[in-house]
Write the structure tokens for this entry.
Amino acid sequence: MLAIWTSFILIARVSAKGHLSPFDISFVRFAFSGLLALPVLFWRGRWLLGQLAPHPRQAFQRAAALAAIAGIGYCSFAYSGFFFAPVSHAAVLLPGSLPLYTAVFAVLLLGERFRRARLVGLVAIVAGDLLIGATSLLRAFGGDASWRGDLLFLGASMCWALYSVLCRRWRLDAVPATCAIAIGCLAAYVPLFALAAAAGLVPTHLAGAPWSEIAFQAVYQGGLSMFVAGLAFTQVVKTFGPVRTTMITAAVPVLATVLAVPLLGESMTVTAVMGLVCVTLGLLIGVRAQVGVNRAVLETGALSPSRR
């Protein structure tokens, strides 16, 4: 999961320099992943609806919500962000901000409470986000557009955080949740984008893009990123909870930022490094706090009268 998340940031940045627009990439992703998920709908449709909710109407509503949030919302924000901001910004604001927004949604939707150590970790994450955001805003006065990408990355992070909390709240398994996103986006985004592009309402470069580029985006974005990483992430959320799961992504910002230097020729500014350090420390503090909570729970359970 960490390898795919890291490569997603690097490949998305490279894709921004290719022929396809961010909405073209989303179209290819949703078309391919939707076709992969169609057999589940045809042969196990009743089972799929039953896994999403007890009643069909509620199942359709949840599927639509997941597709809108984790599919259309996340991809539209994330892919668009790479057209404005470098990998160092995406690494800090995209996976790095997940624990912050996940914690907020967990409090609002799950009623979770956090200890002081985790709050300290979240404050460090906010500090890292502010370092990146403030620098982008200052550069905006000189014509730099990185601040647009930063805002888009934050929007994508919020979408994925909300998705992870909803999976926990609705107790969704990895396969039905991922299939709901894929089929929902195939049914909604793909035909609407095709009609809008054909009518000239939205720009598209699909006709002029090489088939090799389209095929690569389909297999990687629609196959590996959507299904392999999506299934792994959702299963981990169900097992460990949304907040702890997003803390596991502590290695992604470091890996993506460091690899972008030799692979993409990007440079790291002092503020980017400081923001990366703050976010990484915040993630590590949060992971350590969670380990302490789990250890305390195990010790309490081992010493309780009912377990003697």
Remarks:
- The chain is about 80% helix and 0% strand.
- The first helix runs from residue 2 to 15.
